Amino acid sequence: MDDVVVSRDDRFMARALELARTAPFTSPNPRVGAVVVRGSEVVSEGFHRGAGTAHAEAAALEGVDAAGATLYVNLEPCSHTGRTAPCAPLVAASGVARVVAANGDPDPRVSGAGFEVLRAQGVEVTTGVLEPEGEWLNAAYFHHRRTGRAYVSLKLAMTLDGRLGAPDRSSRWVTGEAARRLTHRRRLEVEAVLVGSGTVALDDPSLTVRAVDAPRQPLIVVVDSSGSVAPTATLFGGPADVVVATHPSVPHEAQTAWKEAGAEVLTIPAPPLETGVDLDALIAELGRRGIVEVLCEGGGRLATELLRRDLVDRFELHHGAATIGGDGPGIGDLGARTMSDARRWKLMETQVLDDDVITVYRRAS
User: Fold this and answer.
1) pTM (2 decimals)?
2) Per the residue annotation, which of 18, 41, 45, 57 is the catalytic one?
3) Residue 28 neighbours by CB under 8 Å, 6+ apart
4) Whether 41 is catalytic
5) What is the mean pLDDT of the chain?
6) 28 preceded by a cis bond (ω within 30 of 0)
7) How confident is the model over 218-246, as pLDDT tens digits?
8) Where are the beta strands (DSSP E) in the chain?
9) Cβ(262)–Cβ(233) under 8 Å?
10) Are 91 and 115 in contact (CB under 8 A)?
């Protein structure tokens, strides 16, 4: 394929990815955008708005003469019937001559079958255009479909000298208002928010989406292996559903109080020779419940355990323009004793919000 075609494919695929980002929450479906192009002109565009709505391909092709055109879509058109009809037969019947995709769909119900439907109907299929960008956009979806486990995003607000709070354990506010709005946007993008009992005790957060429009609220998951979270905590009285993940040894009275406050109590035994909640089992259980992505907002002890157990898939650091020093809380012992023991991360995104810097990493292969 000549350089002109490659350049054109990249340009229109970049637009499909941009469209896919329009909807903040499409779970359990992936984020998908589509562009219909004839020659060098865009005929129509579409994106998936959420489960139960038209898929991106259907939205882009509706009412359009697509005969001989090229369809750019960041994910393989589906070939199975869910809440909507399958897209691959629809695309083939539209008269589209060529389909360009960034990624195949790892869902076992698709996994190449969509491309096969297109090729069987004489549609030319090109794959792998901006593949890494497409993989990153739907990283949580791909992870869940491949492993069955929830994708764990760890978000930490940290001072320039690496502290999560002051020596008195206070952490409001490490970052500014713009960075906090971004956190609310991220809550809107995930199915669940995860925190430890220490964060609830110290900050009494609501953990709801407030700073941006909120058509939905994420599930709140609190890890409490000792029964210390009070049933009067603010999060129990909010609009979000709450699950308290705890150890079977926690007193019955505490578990009953959480239930009476409206929470589901999920008891998870500790791993052999350890105490506390088995976080690995918790992440697996969330995945079984259809939680594609869970956003952990701390505190330091829970963050340390997730990192120590190598359960973090995405690492979001909000660097506040402040220094504290002293013995303020931070990340604890991860078991690394030399630099060769360090877990490596790949920088994926950087953003400056007022005086704060946001960096996002994925685990390095």
Assistant:
1) 0.91
2) 57
3) 51, 141, 144, 290, 292
4) no
5) 92
6) yes
7) 999 999 999 999 999 999 989 999 999 99
8) 33-38, 41-47, 70-75, 98-103, 124-126, 151-158, 192-196, 219-223, 242-246, 264-267, 293-296, 314-319, 345-353, 356-363
9) no
10) no
